[in-house]
Task: structure prediction
Amino acid sequence: MGAHRRERPDTASAPATDGMGRRRFLGYVVAASTLTVAAPLAETLLAPAEAAAAVPSAPGPAEIYDLNDMLTHAALPTADLITIRLDPDGTASFALPRAEVGQGITTSSAMLIAEELELPLEKIRVTLADARPELLFNQLTGGSNTTISTYTPIRVAAAVARGRLLRAAALELGEALDTLTAKAGVITSTVTGKSLTYGELAGKAASVATGQVSVTLKEPADFKVIGTARRRIDALEAVTGRKRFAMDVHVPGALPTMVCRPPTINGTVRSVENLDEVRAMPGITDVVRVSTGVAVRGRTFGQCIDAVRALKVTWGPGTAEGASDDTITAELRKAEPPLPALDLLTKSVDARFTFHFASNSALETNCAIADVREDSAEIWASLKSPITAQEDIATKLGLPVTAVTVHVTEGGGSFGRKLFYDAAAEAAEISKATGKPVKLMWHRTDDFRQGRTHPMSTSRVRAGYALGQVLTYDQRHTSVATDFGHGVGEIITAEAARLPVGDLTFSETIFTLTQQTPYDFGVVTQLLSETDKRFNTGSMRNIYSPNVRCAQELVVDELARRMGKDPYRFRRAFLKEERARAVLDKVAEVGEWGRSMPAGTAQGIAIHPEYHAYVAVLTEIDCRPETTGREIPDAYAGPRVTKVVCAVDVGLAVNPRGLQAQMMGGIMDGIAITLSSGLHLRDGHFLEGSWDNYFYTRQWNTPPELEIVVMPPTTDTPGGAGELAVAGAMAAVACAYGRATGTMPTTFPINHGEPLGFEPLPTSPSIPASPTDGLSRAF
Result:
């Protein structure tokens, strides 16, 4: 990102324990020709610590039982179906039933295996499992849940494998079990010095029957791998271009395929004027109408683009015909639940915040390969809910689920986008219509205009206060409906999530299980209301939290100002949890909170709790005219975040280096959605059509100073990390902007109402012409 990064992972001798001593777990030895092991999950829930403020708040639902807990417990019944296999070459193979989309979970999973199995990381092979319906709720990647839900099962399975290998070695060497040690994939006798490798023992340790095995896991004080900073196991493949994504998979006969899409959101095809003419274009093999537009299949993607641009289609109206930012704002205001009546004996802070649509377009554009035949189908795609994809695609193709094979490939980013299988379902439909395998790629403009977005929303907040105490906090979050059509990983909850909006919707459940207030603010209520589902929305990294928490932290700043308190000390006084105070204190210390700064610049500070983890972020921003007035062609300069300090406590960090990378990405997301990254809706379509138009955090807006502090372990299990930094960074940047300008921001991104920094691409044809002179696009 061009920033100077100082890493300061604090260290500690050992995390806090739960007082239970060494715990034993039951795993399984699976009948197989080589050693194969599995394990179920054990989980302990901890209630939040008692509040200490003068007007304590009752724990919210998400503080007692959150979405992550629900996902973890849903995975429990099938945890024993996740296996580790030892091969004759001495390597351990593990098919992870989650999606790797850049977050580094293949590395952290390998570290868990390496720790308990006493095997070097380079001898562990982590792949991604195909869709496995028998896993039910145990193959969903979301809610920062992967490491939490797999932490114990993977370790137990690895410990079972180590125990089986030791027993096999004892028999083979004729030695007592307690004379043998396992290290680096070799078992050695401390008496005779004789040794055997894991590879030599893999077959001998195999079992002819499946049965339970009791194991004892390592104590945290004995960890040699977990908690140490490690490079990603796929780093070399990534930098040398050898990593294989969906578009790198070679399937015989699967030719490039693209779709001509409507000019408005979810428009429909009425007629195609020149089908035969386009079918005769060079390299084009097929042109077919599908539910989402007109698909073309050709020898090269360039030929497909030419064909899409040549098509003459008459389109029917879409689901958001005529809609604009103003009309959706009016709908949201109308749907806002009322706030309670004002108490005449107290003062209050009242505010309404508007958050515009944001693109869910990952760096890797939407893509999939499909080979649909009369009695079977095979799919390749980056999928976070592959079981739902398999079951839904099978239904649409009229095939039994067992006839549809779904391969999960690595993905180049997601931000929640890969929870949906739009490309996979579309590729399957096209393959069935043509009778041929296809390699489908969405154009970048398709992703921005017809792809998934984070829904537009408003947040109405009222905080009542008197005599230096906050007595009530009410928040009414009203949003364009979030699509949870992926469910929690299988077709039953997916169908439930597609039901019309009602009093007890899937969305309200997710909102209740994710949103919490870290402060003792007396009587706290946070409610969700939604409008209809006519937009293609999704859970973009953090679901509701960035918007909800940004609004809350801005109100906290305003409360501190009205009471004459320092924003940092005000937060500290009202925080419920000691872990929250610790991260807040750390960023205040490292970031030199309160230091003297020039006019037009300021610091902001915020905290965010989520999924048994805490993050605090301190930012510094420059809003002076010489900064905001920078001239950059076809871009938006605006304020610049000049410094970020982040302190993160995830309980136990499996890989501190990977955690730091997660925080860095979340911080960049937070800066973007606060200052510059949003979609403009006009006449039923989004104006942005590429990354050129969508002003994500750019090089000139990346903070030159960035410091991530990984706190010492505070628990003996990991908490959620993937989404954690986004809300904290967004809130801290917004608070800094308010203090620098003297005006609390209420519309996000902050630049949304300013003149466009780009010329919108045409809506027809759906794929715009490429620039003919690349140098004109360089800065």
In short: The domain at 32-39+82-239 is CATH 3.30.365.10 (Aldehyde Oxidoreductase; domain 4). Confidence is low (pLDDT under 50) at residues 1-21, 41-52. The chain has three domains: 32-39+82-239, 246-320+366-441, 325-359+452-469+479-748. Residues 146-173 form the longest helix (28 residues).
